[in-house]
Amino acid sequence: MSQQAVESAGMKIPNCSKPFECSECNKLFRQLSTLTNHMKIHTGEKPYKCTICQKEFRQTTTLSNHLKIHTGEKPFNCNFCNKQFRQLSTLSNHQKIHTGEKPFECSVCGKQFRQSSTLNSHIRIHSDDKFCEKPYACTYCSKTFRQTGTLSNHLKIHTGEKPFECAVCGKQFRQSSTLNSHIRIHADDKYCKPSTATVSTTVNGGLNLKLEDIKPFYTPM
Length: 221
What we know:
The protein is α+β, with helices and mostly antiparallel strands and 221 residues long. It has three domains: 18-73, 2-Layer Sandwich (Double Stranded RNA Binding Domain), CATH 3.30.160.60; 74-133, Classic Zinc Finger (Double Stranded RNA Binding Domain); 136-187, Double Stranded RNA Binding Domain (2-Layer Sandwich), CATH 3.30.160. Helix content is 34%, strand content 16%. The chain has helices spanning 3-9, 32-43, 60-71, 88-99, 116-123, 130-133, 148-159, 176-183; strands at 11-12, 20-21, 28-29, 48-49, 56-57, 76-77, 84-85, 104-105, 112-113, 136-137, 144-145, 164-165, 172-173, 192-194, 200-201, 207-208, 214-216. A hairpin with a 6-residue loop joins strand 8 and strand 9. GO terms for molecular function: DNA-binding transcription factor activity, RNA polymerase II-specific; RNA polymerase II cis-regulatory region sequence-specific DNA binding; zinc ion binding. It comes from Anopheles sinensis (Mosquito). Belongs to the krueppel C2H2-type zinc-finger protein family. Belongs to the snail C2H2-type zinc-finger protein family. May be involved in transcriptional regulation.
């Protein structure tokens, strides 16, 4: 979307700290460039495409973070436990586990949380409105969910999407956790599990586990 198109779609409010207003939802922004990116939500425009899996994105920064899934790059290290992360924001949230920091507090019951998204999910349990408790509705069957991640997993039932494939037998799954459970049936020892250190990604961004990646996690008697 060109700057001229954004300017015609939005409004500039004089003498305002957030002078740029979206004409679709009336959200305000400090900068025109931020409004430009926001307008893509309404237009559905996703001009940045991953050359590996063809997934499309609205912003170059989101594409850059996505590419790390394919490359395996995790440049951000936790200085407490040396765990590695693809994004600085994920590292920041993780480090709160070590520091015990929980800056987001429920105004109803006082319970504290590390992330605002967790607080947002929690606050719905205090609502008398059942729709507010589960505000994310499936467009196929109208089933409602508390979190967008749960809705995303549910939608795969309708779309038939199974992005996680077993490298041994080719069976596909909707969730990585189901693949992790399945891969154990290929091991000679039923008490074996996949090594998390050797999980790789498929072309479409899913997980790909190999039989040789399975190792025992107990000592035989």
